[in-house]
Design goal:
The chain has three helices and two strands, in the order αααββ. The chain has 93 residues and is of the alpha+beta class.
């Protein structure tokens, strides 16, 4: 079962992109639809939205909405001298 907060973010992103109607966001909209389908285990975006609404409502009703913070540390090369830069990014789920 997907984390309700992550699922809600995916739903919100899909709906915002779908409402835009701009052809330039078509790829982003397809990616958002795919993410929803993967998270919900469905094959169509309509099924995914229905499942997501049901799962998020169930999680809210049971009071199981919680937040987790993950800290990701990455190291990437900066130049030919072999220097590296480290950065941290927090993800809230």
């Amino acid at each position: 079962m997907p984390n309700p907060a992550v699922l809600q973010q995916a739903v919100d992103r899909y709906r915002a992109l779908a409402a835009d109607g701009n052809i330039a966001v078509a790829v982003s909209l397809q990616n958002a639809a795919y993410t929803l389908c993967v998270l919900t285990g469905t094959r169509t975006v309509e099924e995914a939205l229905t499942a997501a609404d049901r799962l998020c409502s169930r999680a809210t009703a049971s009071g199981s909405t919680h937040r987790r913070t993950l800290t990701l540390t990455s190291t990437s090369p900066l130049g030919s001298s072999g220097e590296t830069a480290s950065g941290e990014r927090e993800l809230v789920a």
